Amino acid sequence: MKAKYMLVASLLVSSSVWAADDTAENPVTEQGVVKVEWQDPSNFRDIRSSSEIQSRFEKRTFEQLTKNLDKEASKILKPEQKLEMVVTDLDLAGDVRPTFGATVNDLRVVKDIYPPRITFSYKILEGDKVIMAGNEKLTDMGFMYSINKMNDKPYRYENALLTGWLKDTIKPKL
After folding, report:
1. Residue 51: φ, ψ to 5°
2. Which of 27, 104, 138, 141 is the most exposed place for a label (fewest CB within 10 A)?
């Protein structure tokens, strides 16, 4: 009888460890000339993981997007300038669909009816001085047709959306 209680207690403890969420409420990623605050990711439109722990997926997603944004922003910004963003909504390209037991993981189905979207405010700083600021709500309805199909990099649609914004909006104003 005592073994039964121990088994139940150990199951409860182990399940609570798996359920623990180690993400910060507003995670911040920073790389080179870019700093991004991801404001309340639990309310983002679609940042669902299809195959891994949600908190790890979010962390990896935020880091990858920030890394690519830094790569592209470094080409546009002057050495003493910095881009700071506060992302309030993110909708990854595609939609996560359950497989109903066909596989262990759900699948992210990418179709043109599920475009990437991102809503954020930004400011470009030169030292401590704000030289440009604004709010953006980006969507790429033609994302399936405007990118190289052979590109298999993660978050290629979202990266293309942000890169296009940098080149079309930020670069001409600087």
Report:
1. -145, 5
2. 104
**Whole-angstrom Cα distance, residue 74 to residue 70?**
6
More confident residue, 102 or 133: 133
Phi and psi angles of residue 120, each rounded to the nearest 5 degrees, phi first = -160, 160
Give the side-chain half-sphere CA count within 13 A for 168: 8
Give the integer Cα–Cα distance in Å for 139 and 89. 12
53: Cβ contacts below 8 Å, ≥ 6 apart: none
Task: Say if residues 118 and 140 touch (Cβ distance below 8 Å).
Answer: no
Alpha-carbon distance 56 to 73, whole Å?
25
DSSP 8-class letter at 163:
H
pTM of the model: 0.80
Mean pLDDT, the chain, integer:
84
Token pair 């759900």 is at which residue?
A: 106
d(CA 10, CA 168) in angstroms, rounded, equals: 56
Distance of CA 40 to the CA centre of its chain: 12
Q: How far apart are CA 39 and CA 105, in angstroms?
A: 27
